[in-house]
Amino acid sequence: xxxxxxxxxxAGLLGTVFVVxxxxxxxxxxxxxxxxxxxxxxIEAAEPAEGGGAAPAAEAKPIADLLATANVEAxxxxxxxxxxxxxxxxxxxxxxxxxxxxxxxxxxAEHEGFAYSAxxxxxxxxxxxxxTYDNLNHFITSPKKFVKGTAMGFAGLPKDExxxxxxxxxxxxxxxxxxxxAPGASAEAKPAEGAAPAKPAEGAAPAK
Length: 208
What we know:
This protein is mostly helical. It has seven helices and no strands. The longest helix has 29 residues.
């Protein structure tokens, strides 16, 4: 191999090294990540509430307060959504769901001639549980969440106003409508399954 060929090889090698070195410098300048002069927004995970679990949701407004401003005529309009599955006449037929005449304070799962789901029968406790205003409010909010295993496929009424209006209308479907609860009365608290009932405060008068 003569000197010219050696010089050519050396020149090619040096050229290749120069190109690679130049590309490295250009890449560093294009993709460098200098520290910002001012820090951005720090994203921090929310600390769980003491005792574990999420913070409690806002307390639901008692049905007694909602019924104080309810509109029966608006409730009749909302009830039209229910009529595909329920009648509301005295002696009316059972459809997909039972007749809702005189539903307020009626024992749960005890309407004659209707085959209730196992979940509803369990909830009824043999008819001891009644369709109080509070129970109606919770059930209409989300049937499947309130009564586990119910066959009712209705998703529920999330708006307080709609529920109050339709319950006020259901109250009128009776020969003797039940008295409305006094505004300001707290909702009936249902203890968790298996929990002992709350004890009255020391010195408190017994409930009548």
